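Box S1 | Example of a co-folding query
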Amino acid sequence: MSDERLIAALDFHTMENVRSLVSVLGDRVGYYKVGMELFYRVGPEAVTWLREQGKHVFLDLKLHDIPNTVAGGLCSLMCLGASMLNVHAGGGYTMMKTSADRLHEEAARLGFVCPKLIAVTVLTSIGQKDWDGLGQALPISDAVVRYASLAKQAGLDGVVASPQEAALIRKACGPDFLIVTPGVRPAGASTDDQSRIATPAAALRAGASHLVIGRPIRAAADPGAAADAILKEMETV
Ligand SMILES: O=C(O)c1cc(=O)[nH]c(=O)n1[C@@H]1O[C@H](COP(=O)(O)O)[C@@H](O)[C@H]1O
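Box S1 (continued) | Returned holo structure for orotidine-5'-monophosphate
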């Protein structure tokens, strides 16, 4: 049985790479993330193929536009059968509320299981320097908690945030709120372009419900062994 708290990011642009990694990881991983690199090149086939393999899919396209456009986009994406979709919380309360309401209505109308809808708070690549450059008044962690609280009020199921804010979000948004954390790196691993990071165990201890992990598995010399080590560390929490 796979640990459904682990979501492996398939940041590839060919289905050959996807098939090969999914085959190497086998039963270890049951939940995959399809993001813009894969979806923009391969399209819906990436999601439908993973569903045919019995895998759950987080379709991470980070929609960010006016309320009507995002809600319509989400309703189109829902038909692909992903378990989770996302928008940018920076689109504001009205965009998130319209999106959640329309997605639920459309799922009920079509008789679909409604995918979980989560909001990206502050990207995990953003460090203090980038944050200051944006001229933001609040500290990053306060902004993340504010976005998470707005997402909850708007009827979303959870957020994407860094593991460094997970404990604060858990406290503000309660035990059932999804906290999906990228920016996860095993001790000693390269941080790549991530800024606000933690280890898999630390992320779970802080209250993350799911860990999104890409390069530490995908770019490892032995992805199966890398996934095993991460899963073993996760079991300790
Ligand atoms: O929404 C996301 O999944 C996401 C949000 C965020 O703030 N940071 C972030 O890294 N991600 C995604 O999570 C994955 C992290 O990949 P690695 O850095 O390779 O582990 C990438 O596919 C990113 O697109």
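Residues 9, 11, 33, 35, 60, 62, 86, 120, 123-124, 160, 182-183, 192, 194, 212-216 surround orotidine-5'-monophosphate (CB under 6 Å). The chain has one domain: 6-235.
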